[in-house]
Amino acid sequence: MKPPPFDYKDPRSLDEAVAVLADCADDGKVLAGGQSLVPLLNFRLAQPAVLVDVNRVAELAYLRRREGKLQIGALCRQARLEQSPVAQESCGLLGDALKLVAHQQIRNRGTVGGSAAHADPAAELPVAFACLDARFKARSKRGERVIDARDFFVTHLTTSLEPDELLTEVEVPELPANHGHAFEEYSRRHGDFALGGAAVLVMRNGDGACREARIALLGAADTPLRAREAEQALAGQKIDEDSAREAARVATRDIEPTGDIHGSSSYRKRLIEAMVRRAIVKAAA
Ligand SMILES: Cc1cc2nc3c(=O)[nH]c(=O)nc-3n(C[C@H](O)[C@H](O)[C@H](O)COP(=O)(O)OP(=O)(O)OC[C@H]3O[C@@H](n4cnc5c(N)ncnc54)[C@H](O)[C@@H]3O)c2cc1C
Q: Separation of 39 CA from ligand 1 center, angstroms?
């Protein structure tokens, strides 16, 4: 299959990329790793007049730790983040999530910003970012703005980025050294998109009880979904099989996942409940 015809621009700097996007009005699309966009073009589900290839904007490929935050340039490849000792030390949940993303070759090419901007509700990184309270930096000719995770993901394949805005960075606040993290999901074959899953963080008090828990669901809704009622139910509790089971029940009580040939809505709901329970127990351990 072939994509529809398009004009091709390959800016060499951030300023140039932002200027090119502004010139495109609503007809431009950013090309990063191409692992989601190229199939969409080939199926003609996306038909942009202009492709703005940002692969030569080297200043967006950074990964650094600064002032208690992990700052990930939008063009940082998923594989680099996965293998980074700095990221593993400060935000281990990202490594848990990335191991589950597609296959090595796709992660070698796919970018962190591309996964966030694509906003697939079955994608792992957006769920991890929601769990980690990440913030998204966007640049346009009008300036820079910072968007919280809860406002960034709007619905299926849709973020709050404007057509002329380039995602430049995902910033993740570091967590205390003694936190636990887990990402659990089920997919039919290794590397396939998951049918359901959950990311969990557990911060403990000195007495071992849960001080703060964060739970984000994958495949439960049109966007990554934080299970805030269940998070509150876990705070102050000792985490064991029973409290994890109850929190998982609360976390998934009101969800209505979309069913398809791979699994009905009720099957996916039960599946996500099981993934939440497992992830809580694992993160706490
Ligand atoms: C066979 C296969 C299996 C896969 N399995 C999984 C999986 O299990 N889990 C998973 O999470 N992903 C999976 N993916 C998707 C993969 O992770 C992609 O790399 C990712 O979704 C998009 O990143 P990209 O850099 O390739 O972005 P692209 O494909 O280049 O772009 C994706 C979208 O984001 C926009 N965009 C990209 N960068 C920016 C930016 N800086 N600012 C604004 N908009 C931007 C583009 O315009 C486009 O709309 C799979 C892909 C394939 C081909």
A: 10
Closest CA to ligand 1's atom 50: 102
Alpha helices in 12-169 (DSSP H): 14-24, 37-42, 78-83, 85-90, 92-98, 104-109, 112-118, 124-131, 149-152
**DSSP class of 77:** B
Tell me, in angstroms, the distance from the centre of ligand 1 to residue 91's CA.
21
Domains of the chain as residue ranges with CATH: 7-53 (3.30.43.10), 58-173 (3.30.465.10), 180-284 (3.30.390.50)
Q: For residue 271, give the nearest of 201, 195, 200 by alpha carbon.
A: 195
Q: pLDDT tens across 113-170, in order?
A: 999 999 999 999 999 999 999 999 999 999 999 999 999 999 999 999 999 999 999 9
Closest residue CA from atom 23 of ligand 1: 114
Residue nearest to atom 2 of ligand 1 (CA): 102
**Residue ranges lining ligand 1, Cβ < 6 Å:** 29-37, 54, 74, 101-102, 106, 110-111, 113-115, 117-118, 123-125, 161, 166-167, 193
Q: What is the pLDDT of residues 197-217, one digit of tens each?
A: 999 999 999 888 999 999 999
